Amino acid sequence: MCKSTDGDKLPANSTLVPGAGSVHLSAPMLWGKGIIHDFKECVWQHWWKEMINFNQKTVAVTLLVFITVIAPTLTFGAVYGKSTNNNIGAIETMLATSWIGITYALIGGMPLCVIGSTGPVLAFTTALFNIAKNLDVPFLTVYAWTSVWLVGYAFLAAFFDLTRFVRLATRFTDEIFALIIVSIFVLDAVWDPFSETGLFWYLSPGHQSHAPYENDPDYNHLTSALLSILLGFGCTWLIFFFRGFKFSEFFCNQSIRTMVHDFAVIGSVIVFTIVKQFGFPDVPTETLNVPAQFEPTYKCCDASCRTQWPMDCADQGAPFGTRPWFADFGDLNGKGWVPIMCAAPAIGAFLLLYLDNGITWHLINHKSHQLEHGEAYNYDLMLSGFFNMVNGFLGLPWLVASTVPCIIHLQALAETDRNGNILSVQETRLTLLFSHLLVGLSMLVLSALELIPLPVLYGVFLFMGLSSLPKIQFWQRFLLFFKQPAVWPSTPYTDWMKKLRIHKYTVFQTLFFALVFVVQNVKVISIAFPFMVFLCIPARLFVLPKLFEGWELELLDGEDEQIEEWVDAKEESIRNFEKRRTVSMGEESDNDTVNQNSEKQDNEMEKSEEADV
Amino acid sequence: MCKSTDGDKLPANSTLVPGAGSVHLSAPMLWGKGIIHDFKECVWQHWWKEMINFNQKTVAVTLLVFITVIAPTLTFGAVYGKSTNNNIGAIETMLATSWIGITYALIGGMPLCVIGSTGPVLAFTTALFNIAKNLDVPFLTVYAWTSVWLVGYAFLAAFFDLTRFVRLATRFTDEIFALIIVSIFVLDAVWDPFSETGLFWYLSPGHQSHAPYENDPDYNHLTSALLSILLGFGCTWLIFFFRGFKFSEFFCNQSIRTMVHDFAVIGSVIVFTIVKQFGFPDVPTETLNVPAQFEPTYKCCDASCRTQWPMDCADQGAPFGTRPWFADFGDLNGKGWVPIMCAAPAIGAFLLLYLDNGITWHLINHKSHQLEHGEAYNYDLMLSGFFNMVNGFLGLPWLVASTVPCIIHLQALAETDRNGNILSVQETRLTLLFSHLLVGLSMLVLSALELIPLPVLYGVFLFMGLSSLPKIQFWQRFLLFFKQPAVWPSTPYTDWMKKLRIHKYTVFQTLFFALVFVVQNVKVISIAFPFMVFLCIPARLFVLPKLFEGWELELLDGEDEQIEEWVDAKEESIRNFEKRRTVSMGEESDNDTVNQNSEKQDNEMEKSEEADV
User: Fold this and answer.
1) Residue B16 and residue B129 in one domain
2) Within this chain, do residues A309 and A257 fall inside the same structural domain, yes or no?
3) Is the confidence metric ipTM above 0.85 for this complex?
4) Cβ–Cβ under 8 Å, residues A251 and B484
5) In the prediction, which pLDDT does B586 show?
6) The domain boundary residue, chosen from B471, B499, B516
7) Which residues on A lie below 8 Å from B190 (Cβ)?
8) Prior bond to A345 cis, omega within 30?
9) What is the CA radius of gyration of chain A?
10) pLDDT in tens, B300-316
C-alpha cells in the first residue's frame, strides 16, 4: 500500500521529517542530582494524594495483586529451597516480598511496580551458592558480603545517573520484552515445555503434582487433570465474561458495571475455588506449596548450626532448632580475603539488578500507559540496592521489579476504552501497601492459602496473557503474515509502507524475540536473559538503521507524536503536489487525480472510524 | 422514553395509522385449489434449480444436518422401543426418517423442513399403544387403521385450506415457540432437570450413562463426566471460534474464510471426536444408542409372532425371528368394530400432525428468513398424511416437521451479516436429500456411529441455542429487565413506547412462555404442547388488544414494513407540528424546540450507526 509511487515529483519520504527514526540519549543528571530529582518529582509531590485515593478499585486491586503475588512467591520459595539447600526457602521469600513491598509502597518512587523474585536472580543466587560451597565458606556469609558490594555499586550507578541508558530502549525492545512476558503467562498457564507447569501437564501421569498420591488407590490422575483443566479455562472464561459487562447496558448504572469489571478476576477465583472445594471436595488438585510454619527454613543439627537437619544428622529425630535470622559476617572459615573477593560476583548481581529493574520500569512507564507521576529510576535503583543489602544480611532472597505482577497491577488500576487502550491510571501507593500487608498476614494463616487451587490461578495467568496481546503492535504485525493484504487494518505503517518492508521488520524483530525466548527458557543460560533483552537496544540503534530508512523506523518504532508529525508532513506534501499539478496542467485534465485523492482520504476516514468503534 | 408527552397538540399515536396492530385471516383457497397452488408455486417453479445448486455449502450442510438428525433419531428410537414394547424401535425410526427425508426432498413443498420424531407424537403413540393393549388387539393393527383415518383427515384439511389459520400466528406466538426451542437446545445440552440429559448430568453417579460400567473397577464416573464436560463446552467454543473467522481479515480471501465458517460445526465435531478417540481412548463417554443390526426391533417367540422374545418365552435361547414389516389389517382378535373406532384417536393424531407441522412451518417461513420459494402448507399437509399412512402400514413411527433440525438447516444455508441477520438463504433440495441418504446408508455401518461422543453433539446443540438467542426480540425485551433504562438499545418500541408498557407486554409474553414451557417439559401433559402453542394465537387476537393500543402492538408485534410505516407517520407528524408552531408563534420563541428536535434526531442517527457496526 505504498502510496508514494507518484515518483520523483513528490518529495521523498525520507526528507519529510529531518532526523526521523533516530534515538537520542537524554542529558545526564550526575552527582546524585538524578536521585534528588526523582525523589522530588515522584515521592514528594505525589505522596499524599497517592496515600488517600482509596476507593472500590483499591480493594479489588489489592486482592488481585495479593493472589498474583502469592503464587510466584511460594513457587520461587520452593525452588530457592532446593537450589540453596534451604538456606533460603519459602518463608524467607514471603518475608522478603512482604517487607520490601510494604516499605517500597511507603517510600518508593514508582509504587505501581511490584517487587519480587525473578528467574535470572534465582539463577544467579544458585551460582553464588555453588561458589560458596567450593570455597567452603558458609553461603549466607558470602551472600551477606556480596550484598554489601551490591548496594555500593547500586548507589554509584544511581549517583551518576547510569539509568538514563535504559531510556534508549524503544518500542522495538519494549514489545519484544512484552511478548516474552505474554509467552510466560500463556505457556505457564497452558503448557510450558520447559518447566512442566501449565494445565495440560496434569494429563501426564508422571507429573510431579500426582506424586503425593502415588499409593492412593482412590486417586485417579485423569480426574484431577480434567478437573484442573476445567477450573483453569473456566476461570479464564468467567473473567472475560465479567469484564465484558463494563461496556454493556446491563445493571442499573455504570458504577455497578465498573465494579463487576474491577472484581472480575478476584470474583472468578472465588467462584472456581468454591466450585472446587464444594463441588469436588474429594478430587485433589494441585495447591500452592505452602510452608508449614513461620520460622527460617534451614534446620540445624546442633547449637552451632553448622550442619543441616536431616541431611547431615539423619539419625537425629528432630532438629535442634533453626538458623539465626542474621548472617555471621565473620564466619569465613579462616579465609579473610573472601569479603574482598565478593566484589567480583557483586558486579554480576548488580548488572542483574540494574537490567531486571530497568527493563520492567521502562515497560511500565511506556507512554501509552498515561502515567503522570514520573519516573524514578535513579532513586529506586538506590532503594533497590538498600533493600537487597538488608535481605543479604538476613538471608532473604534478592528481589527486583517483577514484570508480570507489575503489568497486572498497572492494568488493574487503569481505566481503558473499549479497545483496551489506557485512558488513565489511578496512581496509588495503597494497593501495593495493602496487598503486601496481606502477604505478611498470610504468614500467620499459612494453611488457608492451600484452599486456592493452583489451576484457578493458571486461569488468571492465561487471562492476563490473552488480554494484553491485542495491545502489542509487534503481535499485530506478526498476525499480518496470516491476513489478506487487501483488508489489512489501517495503521500508519500499513497505510504508507510497502508490505514486504513491514514483513521484513517483523521478521527481524521475531528473530530477536526467538533469541530472547530461548535464553529465557533454557535453564542453564537463563541467567543471561536480561542481557539478551538489553542486546535489543544496540540492535535498534546500530543495525536497524542500516536495513530501514529513518521514516520507516519512525512509523514502526517512533512515539505517537513523531508518527503523527510524519503522517501530517506526508499528507501536506501530497496536497501541495496535487495543487501544483492542477495549476500547471489546467483544471480539466486533472480532475480525476484530485477526485481519486479525495476518495482515498474518504476511504481512510471511513477506515479510521471503523477502527474507533 | 415515550416521546409523545407534548400532549393534545400532536396527533394521538393511535390515530397515525388506522387499523394498526390488527391481524387478518387470508382468503381461503377451497376445493383443493390450495394444494394445486402450493404445488405450482413451490415445487413446479423451483424444482430444477433447487436440484442443481450444488456447492461447498451443500457438503457442509449435508454433514451438519446428518449429525443433528441422527442423534435425536436414535434417542427417540430408544424411547419408542421402551414405550411400545419394541413394536417400534430405533431401526424403525431410522428407516422412517431416511425414506421420508429422501422422498420429501424430492417431492416436498418446503424442502428446508426436516421431518422427524417429536415429543408430542411420541406421547400420543404411547397412549395409542395402551389403548390397543386394553382392547387386546395387536398394536400394529390399531396403528395401521388409525393411519388410514389420519390420511383422510389430512387430505380433507388440505382440500379446504384449513392451514390458513396457522398464518394468524404473529411474532408473539412465533417467538414464544422459538424461545421454547432455544430452551430445549440449551437445557438438553447443559442440564435438563426434566429428562436427565445434558453435560452436567454426567456428574451424577447415578446417571444412566454410567450404568454399563457399574462393575468395571477401572471406570471412574467423575473422569468420564469431566471429560464429557470438556468435550462439550470445548466443541461449542471451537464452533464460535471458527465461525468468527468469517468477518475477520485472516486467510487469503473471503472464500476460505467462508469455508471455515461453513464447516465450523462439522470441523469442531471432528476435532473433538479425534481428541476423545486418540487423546482419551480409555475413558468411556456416552455414545449414541445404536441398534445392533438392520431388522425389525420386535423379536418373536414363534412363527405366528403373537408373543415377544424374550419377555413371553424367557426359557427360549434365541428368537424365532422378527415381526414382518407389514401390519396385518385383519388381525382384530374378532373385534370387527375396531377399524371404525380408530376414527376417534385419529382425530387426535391429525390435530398433532396439523399443529406440530404448522408451528414449525410458520417459524421457518418467518419473513425475516428471506425465503423466496413460497409456502406449501396444504400440499405438505397432504404429503405428511400420506407419508404417515405408509409408516402406519409398516409399523414405523409417525413423523412431522421437526423444529430443531429445521432451524439448524435453515441457519446453515443462510448468508448472514455481522449481526446474524439473514440476508439470503440458499434454498435447495440437495442437502435434505443427501443428509437423509446418509441416514439410510448409516444403517449399513451402524457401529461407526458409535465413534461420535454424545457430549460433542451436546456442544453442537449448545452452540445452536446460544447462536439463535440474539435474534429473538422476545429475549432482547426480556433482557431489558436487567438493563439500565437510560442506555437501552434503540429500537422502534424503546424509542416510542413507555418503558413500563414494554415491560408489561414482556411479562404477559413470559407468562405464556412459562405455560408452554411447563407443558412441554412435564412428561404426562407434554402431548398438549402443540395445543398450548396454538393457544397463543387467540391470546394475541383477543386478549392483547384489550391490554394494549393498536399502535403499541404494531411496534412490538408487527411486520417490519408496518413498523416502518408507523414510525414514518409519527416522525412526519412531529415535523408538521413543529412547523405549525414555528409559524404561529414566531421564530425566536421556538428555536429551542426545533434545536431539541434536531438534536434528538442526531442522537438517534448516532445510535443507529453504532448499532450497525
Assistant:
1) no
2) yes
3) no
4) yes
5) 61
6) B471
7) none
8) no
9) 27
10) 877 777 777 777 777 77
> What is the DSSP-derived secondary structure letter of residue B204?
S
Q: Is B236 helix (H, G, I), strand (E, B) or coil?
A: helix
Instruction: Indicate the number of domains in chain B.
Output: 2
With a cut of 50, say whether residue A6 has pLDDT above it. no
Residues A513-544 as b/e (b if ≥16 CB within 10 A, e otherwise) read: bebbbebbbeeeebbbbbebbbbbbebbbeeb
Query: Is there a single domain that holds both residue B290 and residue B405?
Result: yes
Beta bridge mates, A287: A453
Query: Which amino acid, residue A298?
Result: Y
Please tell me the predicted confidence (pLDDT) of residue A612.
39
Tell whether the model's pLDDT for residue A605 goes beyond 60: no
Which range, of A8-22, A137-151, A251-265, averages the lowest pLDDT? A8-22
Alpha helices in B423-528 (DSSP H): 430-442, 454-468, 473-480, 492-496, 499-521
What is the separation of C-alpha A478 from the centre of its chain, rounded to a whole number of angstroms?
A: 21
Angle between helices A119-135 and A343-364 (to 10 degrees): 170
- Residue B250: which of A280, A483, A610 has the nearest Cβ? A483
In a mutational test of the B interface, the residue from A249, A283, A608 whose CB has the highest number of chain B CBs within 10 Å is A249
Question: Which pLDDT does position B507 carry in this prediction?
Answer: 94
Indicate if B358 and B481 belong to the same structural domain: no
- Chain B residue with Cα closest to A228: B226
pLDDT value at position A555? 86
How are the residues of chain B apportioned to helix, strand and coil, as percentages rounded to the nearest 5?
70, 5, 30
Answer whether residue B593 shows pLDDT above 90. no
Pair A477, A466 in one domain: no
Does the pLDDT of residue A61 top 90, yes or no? no
Residue A599 has pLDDT above 70, yes or no: no
Give one DSSP letter per residue of B72-97, joined into a string.
HHHHHHHHHHHHTTTSS-HHHHHHHH
Q: Mean pLDDT over all residues of chain A?
A: 82
Q: Is the pLDDT of residue B3 over 50?
A: no
DSSP state of B317: S
Nearest CB among A222, A251, A484 relative to B484 is that of A251
Residues A308 and B223: their CA atoms lie apart, in Å, by: 43
Whether residues B479 and B457 share a domain: the answer is no
Residue A9: the pLDDT is 67
Q: Is residue B128 part of a domain?
A: yes
User: A470, A488, A511: which is the final residue of a domain?
Assistant: A470
Q: What is the largest CA-CA distance in chain A?
A: 104
Distance CA A242, CA A422 (A): 19
Which residue in A220, A252, A489 is closest to B220 by CB distance? A220
Q: Does B1 touch chain A (CB under 8 A)?
A: no
Q: What pLDDT shows up at residue B227?
A: 95
Same domain, A445 and A553: no
> Is residue B489 less than 8 Å (CB to CB) from chain A?
yes
Asked if residue B154 belongs to a domain, the reply is: yes
**By mean pLDDT, which of A36-50, A443-457, B433-447 is the weakest?**
A36-50
Please indicate, yes or no, if residue A409 is contained in any of the structural domains.
yes
C-alpha cell at B57: 455449502
Residue A206: partners with Cβ closer than 8 Å, 6 or more residues away: none
CB contacts, 8 Å: A251 with chain B: 482-484
Residue B607 belongs to some domain of the structure: no
The answer for residues whose C-beta is within 8 angstroms of residue A455's C-beta and 6 or more apart is A199, A202, A227, A228, A229, A231, A232, A235, A285, A286
Amino acid present at A380: D
Residue A470: predicted pLDDT: 82
- Note whether B291 and B308 are within 8 A (CB): no
B47 and B128 both lie in a single domain? yes
- Domain span at B273: 33-471
Q: What is the 3-state secondary structure of B490-503?
A: CCHHHHHCCHHHHH
Q: Is A71 left (phi over 0), alpha (psi -120 to 50) or beta?
A: alpha
Residue A260: what residue type?
Answer: V
